[in-house]
Amino acid sequence: GGDHTITYPILQAVAEKHGPVGLVHVDAHTDTGDRALGEKIYHGTPFRRCVEEGLLDCSRVVQIGIRGSSYDPDPYEYCRDQGFRVVPAEECWRKSLVPLMGEVRKQMGNKPVYISFDIDALDPAYAPGTGTPEIAGLTPAQALEIVRGCKGLNVVGCDLVEVAPMYDVSGNTALLGANLLFEMLCVLPRVTTM
């Protein structure tokens, strides 16, 4: 997809069919801002708009890889107040995320879940082709552990956003994005993999 704004109308449609859904949100940013340049809808606000419209089951929202600069002394306060589980990037450094995804699967249960993956969750050493890169991010192996860790969940939709190929002459960001999308398709319910 394009920027993270696209997730907002997608979740409106998903919630119309399934009701409020759980969310596995992988990103450098929480995307729960209220406004930017006076606008309420932009790529840093989709999940606040979703909360306001009751599109998310907030007890089943987990945000993984969050980091970066902020204008707020407690940038995750809004998320915690909604009941989101926030997993900052530093809690992911130098370890496998398989145990974390075991916890996430228990949290999500068998109710509908949406996966939203912002490519800037990955360290720009691996995925520089994005508009808001943040240092000290996840590795591609950890990204695979997260997506593969969603196997068995009642995944009703997914997206991968914020890939900007013109910022990466190597093409690695687009390649990584395409592979992560393929992996997401493989964890959809009733998909058989070898």
From TrEMBL:
A molecular-function term among this protein's GO annotations: agmatinase activity
Origin: domain of life: Eukaryota
Protein's GO biological process: putrescine biosynthetic process from arginine, via agmatine
One Pfam family per UniProt: Arginase
InterPro entries listed in its UniProt record: Ureohydrolase, Ureohydrolase_dom_sf, Ureohydrolase_Mn_BS
SUPFAM superfamilies: Arginase/deacetylase (SSF52768)
Record's keyword terms, sorted: Hydrolase, Metal-binding
PANTHER family cross-referenced by the UniProt entry: ARGINASE/AGMATINASE, GUANIDINO ACID HYDROLASE, MITOCHONDRIAL
Sequence similarity: Belongs to the arginase family. Agmatinase subfamily.
Name of this protein: SPEB protein
Naturally occurring in which organism (per UniProt): Thalassarche chlororhynchos
Gene behind the chain: Agmat
